[in-house]
Design goal:
Layout lengths: L2 H13 L3 E2 H8 L3 H13 L3 E4 L5 E4 L22 H11 L8 E4 L6 H15 L7 E5 L7 H9 L16 H4 L3 E6 L6 H13 L1 E2 L9 E2 L2 E7 L3 H4 L2 H4 L4 E4 L8 H19 L2 E5 H9 L5 H19 L5 E4 L6 E4 L11 H8 L8 H16 L9 H17 L3 H18 L5 H14 L1 H10 L5 H14 L11 E7 L3 H13 L4 E6 L5 H13 L6 E6 L4 H8 L6 E5 L4 H13 L3 H11 L4 E3 L8 E4 L5 H12 L7 E4 L2 H13 L7 E6 L10 E4 L8 H8 L9 H20 L5 H18 L6 H19 L15 E2 L2 E2 H16 L5 H11 L2
Parallel strand pairs: 4-9, 4-10, 5-6, 6-9, 11-12, 14-15, 14-16, 16-17, 19-20, 19-21, 21-22
Antiparallel strand pairs: 1-3, 2-3, 7-8, 11-13, 17-18, 23-24
Helix pairs in contact: 2-3, 11-12, 11-13, 16-17, 16-21, 17-20, 18-19, 18-20, 19-20, 21-24, 22-23, 29-30, 29-31, 30-31, 30-32, 31-33
C-alpha cells in the first residue's frame, strides 16, 4: 500500500465514527475490493479495528485503559510527571523472586499509600507470586513503645514479656506470600530497623522471646517516609532499599494534573452524595493553584467541606452548587456519563512534524488546517478549567491593550485545543528556541502576545504566547518602526488611553505604564528602563507622559535608547491618536517630532539629526524586505559599533532631500547602500551593491568602507552579495528549479572549476558563470536543442590541464542529482566563459 493511501485511510477513520467498507471506498474514490485489501492490511498492523459482520464496520484502534495490569492509569500523572516513577515501581516489584525493597518518599498527603495500594493491585491482577494479601502498618502508631512495635512486626512467643499469655503471629508471618507496606518507616527504632534488614537479607526472623527457632516468610516489602531517608534511617538499613521513589508535592505537579486531581475529588463527592455538582470556575481554579501543607489529603478535605457547605445551604436541590452559579462553571454530572477516551496520541503523532516548520506563515496555515480537520469537532473545551482561565485572562488583557476581542477569539480557541492535546509533549526549551526565531521575524506580534499572556499561568505561558503569536501573524503590522509608550499616574489612566488609541488606529501601536500617584520622575525612569530593555530601540522611541521633568526624563532615558527619543509632556487621547495614526502611516521620526512641536500645545523634546550614532543607511528600490536581507548580510561583517538602518527607498529619497538643505543632518551617516542608481547630492558615500559584480569591486569597497569593515572581511562580503543577487535574479528566471538549492550546487561547481583549472575568477565572472550554469541545468532538463561543437573538445585545455575530462568530473554530481546528461555543446560554452 502506498504511504499516501495509508495516511488517507487513517485520516478518514480518525475524523469519523465506525464506517463500512463501501463508505470508505466512496470517500477515497477507490474500488471496494482494493479498499477492503488495504483495510485488512491496516488491521494486520493493529492500526485499525473492525466490528460487526454484515456489514463490517472499521474504526481507529483506541487504547483499552481497563485491561488487566494497567491499574497504574488510576494514578493521575501516570502518563505525565509520574511516568518514570511508575516504570521504576514496575521494574522493582517484578524483579524475581519477590521484587526489590521499595521506598516511597514524599511529603504528607502526596499519595504514597494510594500508590502502594496500586502496586499491590498491579501484582495481584498480574497473578505474580507473593501478592495474595496486602497488609498496611503505620510505624508512627507505636513509635513510643518500640517493644510493642517489635511484637506487632515480628510476633512473640508465650511468656516473652509480662502479659504475653499466648503466642502471637507478627505481621511478617501474617504477610507470608503477600505484601507488607510499612508507612512512616523512619519511626522504627534502630533495633527494629536492624531486625528488619536482617530479615531482608535472609527471609527469616525470630519472634520476640524466641531464642533458637527462625521463621521463614516470603514477603514483598514496601516502605514510605516523609523524611529524607538517608538522614533518618540506619545506613545499614538504608543501603538495603534498592529503589526510592520521590513523589512531588501537589503544587509541584504540572497544572494539568492538579486540575485533574481537583476534578477527580469532586467526582468522588458527587458519587458519595448522588448529586450533580456545579462549581464556580473561580473556586475550582483557586483549589487547583493553591499550595497546601497537607497536599492531596488537605485538598480532599477542602473539596468535601465545600460540598458539605453547599449541601447545608440547599439540602433538597437536585444539583449542588459550589460558589456562585454564573459562567464560567465546571460541571460534574451524576450519574457520570460514560467516559470517552480521546486518542490524543494520534493527534500528537500528526502534529509533531508540523512543529519542525520554520516558515511561520506556513506553520500558521498548517495549524489552522490541522485544527479544523481534527480538533475542532473532537476536542471539547467544556469543563476545561485551564482553557477557561486562559481565555478569560487574555481577553481581559485584550480589552486593556487593544480592545479588540474578536481579533483573538478564534485563535484562542485553537490554542486551547492544541494545549489540551499536546500538554507536556513540547518541551519548554523547544518553545523558547522557536520564540527566539519568531521574535526576529515578528517582533511586534510577539510583544503583543507577551503583553496579552502576562497573567496566564507561568507553566503554559510560553506555549500560549508562541502559538497565539503564530495564529495572529498578519493581524499586527510589523512595519511600525518606532516604539511608542504612554505613561501616566493613576491605576488605569495610561492603559485606558492605550486601549482607545490602539482600537482607533486599528493596530497594536502603544504600550502603557500606569504609575502610582506618589511616583517620582526617578520611579518613572526605572519602570520605563525595564520596558526599554525588552524592546528594539534602534529606530527610535516616542513617549507621551502626563507630568514630570522633560529634561530629567530625556537625559535619564536617552543613553538606553539606540535611536532617537521624542518626549511629549502631555498625555491625552487626541494626542495619542494623532501620534498613533502617523506611526501607522509610516511617517518619519523627524516628521512626527516637527508636527508635534508645531501642533501640540505642550512641551516637546527630541534629538535633532538622523541618528546620534555612526550609521550606514540601507535601502532597495525592490522593497524593504530586500533591504532587510542586505542588512542581515552586513551585520556579519561591519564593525559592531556601526548602526545599520533600513529605510524604504522613498524614505531615503526624502532623507537625502532634507540632508541636502539642512547641513549636518547626516553627519553620523558613513555610507548609503542601495541596489540601484541614486541621485545623491550629499557628501555621504553612496554604494550601488550591484557594482560588486565588477572586476574591481573588492578594491572599490575597501576604499568606500574604510573604518567600517575589516579589509579581510571584504572578499567574504562580496561573495555573500554575489550569492544573494544571484539567487534573487534566478528566482525570476527559473521556471521550476528551487533557486536556494541550485545556487548552492552551482557555487560548488564554480569553486571546483577554479581549483581544477588553477583559476582566480573575479566577482563579475563568478556571477555570470553561476547564472549560466543554473539556467543551463534547467534548459537541459527541459530538453534544450543541441549544436555541433566548432572544434575538437578533447584537445581543449586550460592552464595546461585537459578541459573535457576534468569538466565531466566536475559536473558528474550535478548530472546524477537531476538525472540529466549535459551536452558537449553546453560544456564548450563553459569553456568559452572560463577563458574569457
Amino acid at each position: 500500500m502506498r504511504q499516501e493511501t495509508r495516511e488517507q485511510l487513517l485520516d478518514l477513520l480518525a475524523q469519523k465514527k465506525a464506517s463500512t467498507t463501501q463508505e470508505i471506498a466512496d470517500a477515497i474514490s477507490l474500488s471496494r475490493s482494493a479498499t477492503s485489501l488495504y483495510l485488512n492490511e491496516l488491521l494486520d498492523g493493529n492500526e485499525i479495528q473492525k466490528s460487526g459482520t454484515k456489514p463490517v464496520y472499521w474504526s481507529i484502534v483506541t487504547p483499552d485503559y481497563n485491561e488487566a495490569g494497567d491499574v497504574f492509569l488510576q494514578y493521575i500523572g501516570s502518563e505525565g510527571s509520574a511516568k518514570k516513577a511508575i516504570e521504576k515501581c514496575k521494574a522493582a516489584v517484578l524483579y524475581p523472586p519477590l521484587g526489590l525493597p521499595l521506598l516511597l518518599h514524599g511529603a504528607s498527603g502526596v499519595g504514597k499509600s494510594f500508590l502502594a495500594q496500586l502496586i499491590f493491585d498491579y501484582l495481584h491482577e498480574k497473578k505474580y507470586n507473593g501478592a495474595q494479601n496486602f497488609f498496611v502498618f503505620n510505624c508512627a502508631d507505636y513509635a513510643n513503645n518500640p517493644e510493642l512495635l517489635s511484637s506487632i512486626l515480628f510476633g512473640h512467643i508465650k511468656g516473652a514479656f509480662t502479659g504475653a499469655e499466648k503466642e502471637k503471629k507478627g505481621l511478617l508471618a501474617q504477610a507470608d506470600n503477600g505484601v507488607l507496606f510499612l508507612d512512616e518507616v523512619h519511626r522504627l527504632s534502630h533495633e527494629n530497623q536492624e531486625k528488619l534488614f536482617q530479615f531482608m537479607d535472609t527471609g527469616k526472623f525470630r519472634p520476640v522471646g524466641e531464642e533458637a527457632e527462625l521463621i521463614h516468610s516470603n514477603v514483598r516489602l514496601l516502605f514510605a517516609t516523609t523524611e529524607i531517608p538517608e538522614e533518618v534511617l540506619l545506613p545499614t538499613f538504608y543501603r538495603r532499599i534498592s529503589v526510592i521513589i520521590d513523589l512531588p508535592t501537589f503544587h509541584e505537579r504540572p497544572i494539568f494534573e492538579r486540575i485533574e486531581l481537583v476534578k477527580y475529588l469532586f467526582e468522588r463527592e458527587s458519587k458519595r452524595i448522588k448529586k450533580s455538582i456545579t462549581i464556580s470556575n473561580d473556586i475550582f481554579s483557586a483549589l487547583a493553584t493553591q499550595e497546601l501543607s497537607g497536599n492531596i489529603g488537605s485538598l480532599a478535605n477542602q473539596v468535601r467541606m465545600a460540598c458539605a457547605d453547599a449541601l447545608r445551604i440547599s439540602p433538597n436541590s437536585q444539583e449542588l452548587v459550589v460558589g456562585e452559579n454564573k459562567q464560567p462553571v465546571i460541571q460534574i454530572n451524576y450519574p457520570p456519563a460514560p467516559t470517552l477516551v480521546e486518542d490524543t496520541h494520534l493527534f500528537v503523532k500528526k502534529i509533531t512534524p508540523l512543529l519542525q516548520i520554520t516558515d511561520f506563515v506556513k506553520l500558521k496555515e498548517e495549524l489552522r488546517s490541522f485544527d479544523s480537520r481534527y480538533l475542532e469537532n473532537t476536542v471539547t473545551l467544556i469543563n476545561d478549567s485551564l482553557a477557561l482561565n486562559i481565555k478569560t485572562s487574555i481577553q481581559k488583557q485584550n480589552r486593556c491593550v487593544i480592545d479588540n476581542e474578536l481579533m483573538t477569539k478564534e485563535a484562542l480557541e485553537t490554542v486551547c485545543r492544541l494545549l489540551q492535546v499536546l500538554k507536556g509533549e513540547l518541551s519548554s526549551q523547544k518553545i523558547e528556541e522557536k520564540m527566539y526565531l519568531f521574535s526576529k521575524q515578528y517582533p511586534r506580534t510577539l510583544l503583543l502576545v507577551t503583553n496579552l499572556t502576562k497573567n496566564v499561568p507561568s507553566e503554559v505561558q510560553n506555549f500560549v504566547a508562541f502559538f497565539l503569536g503564530i495564529l495572529l501573524i498578519g493581524k499586527v503590522s510589523e512595519e511600525i518602526r518606532y516604539q511608542a509608550l504612554l505613561v501616566a499616574h493613576g491605576n488605569a489612566t495610561a492603559s485606558s488611553i492605550q486601549a482607545v488609541a490602539n482600537k482607533m488606529c486599528g493596530d497594536y501601536v502603544f504600550d502603557a505604564i500606569n504609575m502610582p500617584l506618589s511616583s517620582s520622575a526617578r520611579d518613572i525612569v526605572a519602570e520605563v528602563n525595564d520596558w526599554l530593555s525588552e524592546r528594539d530601540t534602534s529606530e527610535g522611541v516616542i513617549m507621551l507622559v502626563d507630568m514630570g521633568s522633560l529634561t530629567q526624563l530625556y537625559k535619564s532615558l536617552k543613553p538606553q535608547i539606540l535611536g532617537e527619543l521624542l518626549v511629549i509632556n502631555n498625555l491625552t487621547t487626541s494626542y495619542a491618536l494623532e501620534i498613533g495614526q502617523q506611526l501607522v502611516n509610516g511617517n518619519l521620526f523627524y516628521e512626527i517630532a516637527k508636527k508635534a512641536e508645531r501642533d501640540f500645545v505642550t512641551n516637546v523634546q527630541y534629538f535633532e539629526g538622523f541618528s546620534v550614532e555612526k550609521n550606514v543607511i540601507i535601502a532597495s528600490i525592490s522593497g524593504r524586505d530586500v533591504a532587510k536581507k542586505i542588512k542581515a548580510i552586513c551585520e556579519k561583517y561591519f564593525n559592531p559599533d556601526i548602526k545599520l538602518i533600513v529605510l524604504n527607498f522613498s524614505e531615503l529619497v526624502n532623507t537625502l532631500e532634507r540632508a541636502y538643505s539642512e547641513e549636518g543632518y547626516l553627519k553620523e551617516t558613513a555610507a548609503i547602500l542601495t541596489t540601484s542608481y541614486l541621485d545623491n547630492k550629499t557628501p555621504v558615500t553612496n554604494i550601488n551593491l550591484i557594482d560588486v559584480l565588477d572586476e574591481d569591486a573588492e578594491n572599490q569597497l575597501n576604499m568606500q568602507l574604510k573604518n567600517l569593515i575589516h579589509p579581510s572581511s571584504i572578499p567574504l562580503l562580496v561573495n555573500e552579495f554575489i550569492h544573494f543577487f544571484s539567487k534573487e535574479g534566478l528566482s525570476e528566471k527559473l521556471e521550476f528549479l528551487n533557486p536556494d538549492v541550485i545556487i548552492r550546487q552551482v557555487e560548488d561547481v564554480v569553486g571546483k572549476c577554479e581549483k581544477r583549472f588553477s583559476l582566480q575568477l573575479n566577482a563579475k565572472m563568478k556571477f555570470n558563470l553561476m547564472m549560466h550554469i543554473a539556467l543551463m541545468v534547467e534548459r537541459t532538463i527541459l530538453g534544450a536543442e543541441d549544436y555541433p561543437v566548432p572544434e575538437d573538445i578533447n584537445q581543449l585545455s586550460i592552464n595546461s590541464k585537459p578541459f573535457y575530462q576534468n569538466v565531466q568530473t566536475i559536473f558528474y554530481t550535478l548530472e546524477q542529482f537531476y538525472k540529466i546528461k549535459i551536452s558537449t555543446w553546453e560544456l564548450y560554452i563553459i569553456y568559452e566563459i572560463l577563458i574569457g
